[in-house]
Design goal:
Chain B: It comes from Drosophila melanogaster (Fruit fly). The structure holds two protein chains of two kinds. Chain A is an alpha+beta fold. Chain A contains four helices and four strands, in the order αββββααα. Chain A has a single domain, classed as Ubiquitin Conjugating Enzyme, CATH 3.10.110.10. Chain A is 36% helix and 18% strand. Chain A is globular, with a radius of gyration of 16 Å. Chain B is mainly α. Chain B has two domains: 193 residues, no CATH class; 52 residues, 2-Layer Sandwich (Herpes Virus-1), CATH 3.30.40. Helix content of chain B is 59%, strand content 6%. In chain B, α2 crosses α8 and α3 packs antiparallel against α5. About 2% of the residues of chain B have low confidence. The chains are: A alpha+beta, B mainly alpha. At the A-B interface, α1 and α2 of A face α9 and α10 of B.
Amino acid sequence: MSTPARRRLMRDFKRLQEDPPTGVSGAPTDNNIMIWNAVIFGPHDTPFEDGTFKLTIEFTEEYPNKPPTVRFVSKVFHPNVYADGGICLDILQNRWSPTYDVSAILTSIQSLLSDPNPNSPANSTAAQLYKENRREYEKRVKACVEQSFID
Amino acid sequence: MAEAANVRQNLQNVPSIFEISASETLDNLIYPALSKIFDYFGLRLDFKLWGSLRIQEELSPLLTWLLQYLYLRKRASSFGESFYGLQRTVTTTGDLLNRRQQFASATLLTFMPYVERKLRTRITRHEDTSPWEQRLLSAFHAFHAAKAAHTFFYLVKYASNHSPIFRLLGLTLRYPSEPPKEDQWTYVVLKMLEVLAFFLQFVQWWYSNDQRRKVGGTLINPEAMPRKQLPKEVQQSLPQRGECPVCLLSIQTPTACSVSGYVFCWKCIVSHMKEHGTCPVTHYPISLDDLVRIYET
């Protein structure tokens, strides 16, 4: 059946294929358009460079009026990423807008990797290291980058 | 001979229906004039005074009440009645008003029109009105009919007061037998308020001119409202070929959000507004009144 959410998701997928943004990609799973798999490549000139981080995006029938649930599958050491892969990002919560499509969501998450917000930490260890011991923070990040190669 | 003189005295002391009608018209002008003044200063001060619009709506009737109460206390008449030299007296004794009658007069004079205005506004906006509101509006209709009947009886000298309110309060209108005794300060303040009465007439004339200009006059080219700076991701997400920003498909039943200027499908913008109360693109607060249907020819 075709619902507004599914029609919108097919539109998002089409836009993602026709005009792919740099460093991110995504596609629905084979049997369910409401669940997507995505990959974000670590931004250049950041400790995340060369990393390939996998994510899942779960949509509901309320999309685009409600944001999807986005989680990292790969291990990510980042102040705003929870241990279970959940992401603390304002546009996925209170500042959501239906004008964000999947491409914009992934691009925003990629930007979050470059510019953490340590004031609303999801990972207190990462937030503390990011503020007090940048060298150790980058070392931990590089470790999870190497881990992402194996996944 | 003495009887004839007495009859002439009585006739001279009773105001005509035209003066009463004129004084009521002047009283009814106070609220729209105050609202117009607030609108003017509100627009000049700050465009985003949006939140205090409710305060303005309640401030005008409150100021109106204060004005009327001041006149009733000092001159035993409403603002309009004082302007035409009338005075309220107790029907049976001919005495001036006591404190309770002053308060009741000011309150009825101000808040009955206020409540009626609120009711009519809600009905014209097609808001869901409860049964008691319908009954209250019917009561207002009945009141206006009773007032018309009273006016007719007063016109043919059959009744001593011209309004059911006056009958309820036991009051009547007369010319004062002697000029009011006031101290200097009160005299100055009331004189200034009488000058304000001329200003009210001017505001009404100005408002009529303003409306006439809006209808048929030449429009000065207004400056375009500045476009809100959107986050980069939103700018990139917005459709480039005129699709709806929410569903990204061709727009069905085009509807503009007058707060932000963006155009959406009717279904998309209404469902989003009912849930969030904001524009999907700019997050500005919006209501149903801000949506404008766009027709294609």
